[in-house]
Amino acid sequence: MIKLYQFPPAYGLPNMSPFCMKVETYLRMAGLPYECPRNADIFKSPKGKMPYIEDTGPANGTSGKIIADSTFIIDYLKATYGDKLDANLTPRQRARGVVIQRTIEESLYWPVVYSRWIEDVGYETVKEAAFSRMKFPLRQIVPVMARRGLRKELYEQGTGRHSRDEIYAIGCRDVVALSELLGDQQFFLGDEPTSIDATGYGFFANLLWVNIDLPIRQQAQKLPNLEAYCQRMKSRYFG
Ligand SMILES: N[C@@H](CCC(=O)N[C@@H](CS)C(=O)NCC(=O)O)C(=O)O
User: Fold this and answer.
1) Which sign does the torsion angle of CA 126, 132, 134, 140 carry?
2) Rounded Cα–Cα distance for residues 10 and 161 (Å)
3) Beta carbon of 86 within 6 Å of any ligand 1 atom
4) Is 198 within 8 Å of 23 (Cβ atoms)?
5) What gap in Å lies between CA 224 and CA 168, rounded to an integer?
6) How many helices (H) does the chain have, and how many strands (E)?
7) What is the pLDDT of residue 57?
8) Cα(22)–Cα(19) distance, rounded to whole angstroms?
9) What is the pLDDT of residues 65-100, one digit of tens each?
10) Helices 120-131 and 138-157, interaxial angle, to 10°?
11) Residue-wise pLDDT tens digits, 18-39
12) Mean of the per-residue pLDDT values of the chain
């Protein structure tokens, strides 16, 4: 059995973490049974981040193999259970998938983090969704510490050194480019879903369907193919 350790669902989405939602989406796309243990503990994650998985294999009860990081998890699942989703991709499509993934996860991710954690309107929304079930005084202390940590991370990564306008210029440019690459196709690499769509859905659903009314979301809302894409993924895999 595959155990997916991740944050609890929030905002009516499977997960408020696009990386967690990516792995859950992939598991559904690949038709792999999984369970999400309650109270997953980020401090038990080998890389100190969510998601991670434990795979006890077909013989449930054997000591589980633990893998952290959404991309390495998907690599492991492909190697262990087969890779029907991407089997027929051409080298050009694979290359396009890598570049789309990097744009979403390594570039667009940071303006999204900024809008959620640094902007007051975003912070109030994530605070309510992620921490309101914690006991007092943790629910007051933990979000402040998380915000401080992410501010530092943004600065060290580089995005946090730009002005607000510059950060949204980066994010909006990524959103427009990704919408253009999706075009009128059903999925990012054509009319059949492939593993890159786990990333696409995890991120764009989190951008479009979490009510944080800031420039990056406003930009995505102007591009109807992104909304249609998310609806398509939702009804196919979470319907
Ligand atoms: N490269 C990692 C990124 C995972 C990641 O950044 N997870 C965030 C949530 S979106 C997290 O766990 N943050 C908590 C922290 O950094 O303390 C992956 O692909 O899984």
Assistant:
1) positive
2) 30
3) no
4) yes
5) 19
6) 10, 4
7) 76
8) 5
9) 999 999 999 999 999 999 999 999 999 999 999 999
10) 130
11) 999 999 999 999 999 999 999 8
12) 96
Q: State the pTM of this model.
A: 0.96
> Ligand 1 pocket, 19 CB below 6 A?
yes
**DSSP letter assigned to residue 9:** P
Q: Which structural domains are found in the chain, ordered by start?
A: 2-81 (3.40.30.10), 91-237 (1.20.1050.10)
Query: CA–CA separation, 229 vs 142, rounded Å?
Result: 35
Residue listed under structure tokens 């659903």: 205
For atom 12 of ligand 1, the residue with the nearest CA is: 49
H-run or E-run covering 203: helix 196-208
Mean pLDDT check: name the lowest of 17-21, 56-60, 109-113. 56-60
Identity at 79, one-letter amino acid code: A
Q: Which atom of ligand 1 is nearest to the CA of 146?
A: 17
**Site of tokens 């905002």:** 11
SS3 199: helix
Neighbour-count burial for 138-149, b at 16+ CB within 10 Å, e otherwise? eeeeebeebbee
